[in-house]
Amino acid sequence: MTMDHVAEKGLVLLGCGKMGSAMLQGWLAGGLPPASVRVIDPNPSEWLRGTGVHINADLPATPAIVLVAVKPQMMGDALPVLRDRGNGDTLFVSIAAGTPISAFEAALGGKTPIVRAMPNTPAAVGRGITAIIGNAHASAAQLDLADILLQAVGQVVRLDDEGQMDAVTGLSGSGPAYVFHMIECMAKAGEAQGLSPDLAMQLAQATVAGAGALAEAADETPAELRRNVTSPNGTTQAGLEVLMDEATGLPPLMVRTVKAATDRSRELRNG
Length: 271
Known about the structure:
- The chain is an alpha/beta fold.
- Helix content is 48%, strand content 13%.
- It has two domains: 3-166, Rossmann fold (3-Layer(aba) Sandwich); 173-269, Orthogonal Bundle (ProC C-terminal domain-like fold).
- Strand 7, helix 6 and strand 8 form a beta-alpha-beta unit.
- The longest helix is centred in the last third of the chain and has 21 residues, at 197-217.
């Protein structure tokens, strides 16, 4: 199952906010014909109007894929429109946070092929990472298709079971905000040592972005990269001795942070 299949049978995008727009931009740039895309969105942006896709038009009877990109609270209004496409060959892919596969099976029919996906906000610049899991009715070819579609905004990983989605939410789903806060804290710390706010922020942003890019591109592990830049009794070692303290430093703080977000994801899921 390929993008040719999607171009032929059609793709429906339910909701086209920031994440939906980022994905659509990636698909169109990759060669998906605008005429094969139907977007359902009550407030289409100027950008969307200029893409050439069909907006709020009649839907194909059996589209290859329906990508659900509306906020969870809007799901109740949006899904009934598509109920008659359930229990068939159309694959439904959801990027709605916190909405389990069972909710889609209840709304669309128990035999509907469904893939649940959890992207994160760097998808908006093509640098996201998305975790996916399919139900029993999603074939291997359909999972591959979801994987290809979601690669338009970054990396894709596959989970063994839906229960892992809470930990994914706590780590990569919420994780960008942790990094943004780290940048804030580093900049404030630079100010405290005499740098101007603007300079401290520029240094902190570039350092975190550059280190992340290096960590992803390098053959070495992050631990090896850290050791490589740490001279004995040097400045980096002095800073790391504070940051790496097993009792008061980053390791226990990060464990508590990711656990809190994961626990909250479980609470929301269990109502």
